[in-house]
TrEMBL record:
It catalyses: L-glutaminyl-[peptide chain release factor] + S-adenosyl-L-methionine = N(5)-methyl-L-glutaminyl-[peptide chain release factor] + S-adenosyl-L-homocysteine + H(+). The keyword Transferase applies. One of its GO terms (molecular function) is peptide chain release factor N(5)-glutamine methyltransferase activity. The keyword Magnesium does not apply. Signal peptide: none annotated. Gene3D superfamilies: DNA helicase RuvA subunit, C-terminal domain (1.10.8.10), Vaccinia Virus protein VP39 (3.40.50.150). It comes from the Bacteria. This is peptide chain release factor N(5)-glutamine methyltransferase. Keywords: Methyltransferase, S-adenosyl-L-methionine, Transferase.
């Protein structure tokens, strides 16, 4: 079995994969059911031919640039396992900072009313649901592919307090919401120019979940203008932002009547989350 794994790792390395050992191990576990530690125990056992073919096919997909997460069909986020695939943004570790920041600002609020805009897989909404299991949470998503994964992940994780809603953040209709304690969002924020230079692998993800207009700030303007007014006095807002966008987004928040603005850095030292509190009347 170990020889099969090593061949997969070598094929990925030859294709220029940046983490061949990790990726080959993940794909091996998907097909054979053994992680790297278990593989060492079963090293001498022969691999079944049909499974070798299946593993080789997955290695080839990965070598051609299909995201590992899409091949696996699921990916961890906080303590959750979320279903992922073509048509939805892959949850990323830095987005956990958005959830943790919002949760910290919500301390002391019992069952806060929460709205997650541009929900995608539901990572942010479900992450908050894991911390506030009785809070009413609305997860808003527009696009069919992402909305399908949002619905599936709500069912799979069992957080029935999360409600999926079809909604266009930029052009809302007549949707009605109660006064909100919290608005969160990880919106598209890649600029039009940056879209041209994205890694080939990232380009597998839906453009609608990545591009935020010419300057990457289209969604933040809409959130400030159209959505932050729905916050209760004392309600909080928190958004994930791209590199070098924090100062501008913070200014949008201030213009929308939010104070106590804070910017949180991710594990790479990049300003990643902007948050604020709506001033009380």
């Amino acid at each position: 079995m170990a020889e099969t794994y090593r061949k997969g790792k070598s094929a990925l390395a030859a294709a220029g994969n940046e983490s061949p050992a990790f990726d080959a191990a993940c794909l091996f576990q998907k097909v054979f059911g053994y992680n790297r530690q278990e593989l060492a125990v079963h090293d001498g056992e022969p691999a079944q031919e049909p499974k070798i073919g299946e593993y080789t096919a997955l290695i080839e997909e990965r070598a051609q640039g299909r995201p590992l997460q899409y091949i696996l069909g699921k990916w961890p986020f906080m303590e959750l396992e979320l279903l992922v695939g073509e048509g939805v943004l892959i949850p990323r570790e830095e987005t956990e900072l958005l959830v943790r920041t919002a949760a910290e600002l919500l301390k002391g609020k019992e069952n806060p009313e929460i709205l997650d805009l541009c929900s995608g897989t539901g990572a942010v909404a479900l992450g908050l649901a894991s911390l506030f299991p009785n809070a009413p949470i609305c997860a808003a998503e527009l696009y069919d592919g992402a909305f399908s994964y949002l619905q599936k992940n709500i069912i799979e994780t069992g957080f029935r307090n999360v409600k999926p809603v079809r909604l266009d953040v930029l052009h809302p209709g007549t949707e009605e919401f109660p006064p909100l304690d919290c608005i969160v969002s990880n919106p598209p924020y890649v600029t039009a120019d940056e879209m041209k230079t994205l890694q080939a692998e990232v380009k597998h993800e839906p453009r609608t979940a990545l591009e935020g207009g010419a300057d990457g700030l289209v969604f933040y303007r809409a959130i400030a203008d159209l959505w932050l007014p729905k916050l209760k006095p004392g309600g909080i807002a928190a958004v994930e932002v791209g590199d070098k966008q924090a100062a501008k987004v913070a200014s949008f928040f201030r213009d929308a009547g939010l104070g106590q603005i804070r910017v949180e850095k991710d594990f790479n030292g990049i300003d990643r989350v902007v948050a604020g509190v709506r001033e009380k009347d």
